[in-house]
Amino acid sequence: MKKVFLFVVLLIVIVFAAGCTQQNKQPQPKTNETSQTKKNGQDTYEKSNVPTVYFHGYGGTYQSLGGMIDRLEKQEITKREMVIRVAVDGRLSIDGALSSQNNNPSIQVLFDDNQNNEWNQAEWIHNVFTYLKTQGVSQINVVTHSMGGVSLVRSLATYGQTDEVVTINKFASIAAPYNNFLDTSSQQIVKELLRNGPAEESDRYIFYRDHLDNIPTNINIKMIAGKLDKQTFTDGTVPTTSALALFSLLKAHNDTVSYEVFTGANAQHSRLHENPKVDQSVAKFLWGIKAS
């Protein structure tokens, strides 16, 4: 009888323990990942078939912005799908094709005469935008370095927004001398520049200002500038104030404008487009999902 009693008690203990174990194994409620969270501790990015077009600066080559594209491609943030070479006469040579996949496709534009003036480059950029429209592309993002930004804005100011060209959604400008090489830092602090524009205006800036109505409104623009150190308002080539010179002008024009200034050795003019922090700044601006 005693053995039977012990057996029953042991059986009850086993059943109770099994029930507790099963209860602990019940699936826990999952936290839904939204477009405003991080996944696995990494920044998440929107993916679409909107191409991003890259324009190099004066004397630029395949490597000038190609390194940025390669690094972002390795992180699976973008996919290089097309390279467009522009001849001196404006004719285009196309390598690759757009897949229409939601992989944030990149298009790198290379000028055969990479030291030509901004007026000719403005025409070539217009040719690229016209070509893309004929290929069924309606919207693009743009990334430029140095003179590439100067020529892009000159193209927009010269030709305007028509049905013949693509629409620019976002524009990331890296170290572009929009006020030529005038350094106004001795005359005004950066906050004043951002509020009122440059204290001294170059012919280039005046052209932009006088043709502002041709520039499309509602472009989301990020201006990136460099400083060699905290006391130096230049990236070694382009004054910080020149790279930010168009801020107030475009903001008053109903464009959304932001800026970021990088400081240190990797903020030198030619190193900016090789700086991983600039890579991430551009990626977050173009495709990043902001945390709530």
Keywords:
292 residues, 35% helix, disordered N terminus, Rossmann fold, globular, alpha/beta
Characterise the protein shown here.
The chain has a single domain (52-287), classed as Alpha/Beta hydrolase fold, catalytic domain (Rossmann fold, 3-Layer(aba) Sandwich). Helix content is 35%, strand content 20%. Mean pLDDT is 88; it is low at 1-41. The chain has helices spanning 2-24, 62-74, 118-134, 147-159, 190-196, 203-210, 240-243, 247-252, 276-287; strands spanning 52-55, 79-86, 92-96, 105-111, 139-145, 167-174, 178-181, 220-227, 256-263. The chain is globular, with a radius of gyration of 27 Å. It has nine helices and nine strands. Helix 3 (118-134) crosses helix 4. Helix 4 links the parallel strand 5 and strand 6. It has 292 residues and is an alpha/beta fold. An eight-stranded mixed sheet has the order 3-2-4-1-5-6-8-9, sandwiched between helices.
Précis, in short:
Keywords: Hydrolase, Signal. By secondary structure, the chain is α/β, with parallel strands linked by helices.
Model regions low in confidence, pLDDT < 50 over at least 5 residues:
1-41
Shape: globular
- Which CATH class is shown? Alpha Beta
Number of structural units classed as domains: 1
Protein name: Alpha/beta hydrolase
Pfam families: DUF915
GO molecular function, one term: hydrolase activity
Organism: Enterococcus alishanensis
